[in-house]
Amino acid sequence: MKGIAASALCLLVPLLCMLAASGGAKAQARYAVLVGQDGGDFVGTTNDVIQRAVNRAAKQGGGVVFIKRGTYVMRDQVRLASGVTLRGEGVATVLRKCDGCKTALARDADSGDTRITVEDASGFAAGMGVTIGDKSNRSGWALAVRSITAIDGTCFTLDEPLERDYKADNGSFVQNTFPLLAAYTQERVRIENIALDGNAEANERLDGCRGGCINLYTCTNCSVVDCIARNYNGDGISFQRGKAITVERCEAYGNRGFGLHPGTGVTHCIMRANTIHHNVRVGLFFCYNVQFSVAADNVIYDNDGYGISIGHQDTHNIISSNSIVGNGSHGIYFRKETEENAAHYNTITGNVICDNGRNEPASGIYIDGVTKHILITGNTITDTRPEKKTQRYAVTIGQNADRVTVSGNDLSANVDGAVQNLAPDAENSIAGNTT
Description:
Blueprint: H1 2-22, E1 32-36, E2 42-43, H2 47-59, E3 63-67, E4 70-74, E5 78-79, E6 84-97, E7 102-103, E8 115-117, E9 129-133, E10 144-152, E11 155-158, E12 173-175, E13 181-184, E14 190-197, E15 214-217, E16 220-225, E17 228-230, E18 237-240, E19 243-248, E20 251-253, E21 260-263, E22 270-272, E23 275-277, E24 284-285, E25 294-296, E26 299-301, E27 308-310, E28 318-320, E29 323-325, E30 332-334, E31 346-349, E32 352-354, E33 362-367, E34 372-377, E35 380-382, E36 391-397, E37 402-407, E38 417-421, E39 429-431
Parallel strand pairs: 1-2, 1-3, 3-6, 4-6, 5-13, 6-14, 13-15, 14-16, 14-17, 15-18, 16-19, 17-20, 18-21, 19-22, 20-23, 22-25, 23-26, 24-27, 25-28, 26-29, 27-30, 28-31, 29-32, 30-33, 31-34, 32-35, 33-36, 34-37, 36-38, 37-39
Antiparallel strand pairs: 7-12, 8-11, 9-10, 9-12, 10-11
């Protein structure tokens, strides 16, 4: 087991060193353009002025778009381009989602359509982003996120054809939701020193496959650094497919979904030194096929669900030196998956996992499903509260888990004990811990 974990570490350490040496995916500053509300190369207060600046930099082969301080109203997503860095002035540069509106389809919208007819066009305008769905296609990849290029009465013209059929009489909806910043099949994109506000109270939900304050899809060698992703009716930062994505020193809080959401086969990613708290669901959600990635030095606290959730074919990852405290359920939860799909060959080391289970009795780490080859070592997993302790066990090994090694940890002061081993006949190793 230790040899397997060491092998995974050997694969990941060179990536960490490479990114540390290069500073991540920095675009070369061959070209620079300034966006401001009271002066600059592009002047305005909405997403449109930022998009025009990004397009200008992209035509130059890349460069830096500086966004001066101020609150910019986002009526549509800003689509980022390869080699472009988008840089703000920290908390003084705010990209805020506009108030939402919603209607239903008046007639079916079919695959290939670029025009849709809605019941009520009030509140919508050309240049606005929209999400289209129905009862059978209401989440994930089934949704269509598009931009309105023109409106004629109740007919919207879209920027791209639809890829699915949406039935008007099947709970259809058209709502102006979208990611605030997005990149699709790009490389060397960098986002830094920007605060993003999803204005969740005034908007419908859009989950992290198509949405988020920041959404990267099929991108390579991109970085999100020193950003704030807050108050989105969905996820804070989502990156799906692609590889070598770095999310570093960001804060994700108050989102109605997950704080950070890597998924859909993304590999060789680094989530480092982020603060993830007070999200309605999970703090850090490893979705499908997240592999050979690192979550290190993050502070993950007071999320309503799990601190970290890991599951479907999320293999060969390292969860290291994080503080995972006060979350609503388990500190780290390995989801209930079949042997074919479980999160095998993961290492959990050097973390402080304490005082979890705020909303329900929980464990510091709970290994569910037919999960195998997990190394848990060098962690402190405890409940420090003098009363109302709800982190019942430091580690629970589920009845179908196997080849789990729990060694060299401090597992003291949990309510019901150090390790709850529900698979006593499996080849699990529990030794050398402080209890």
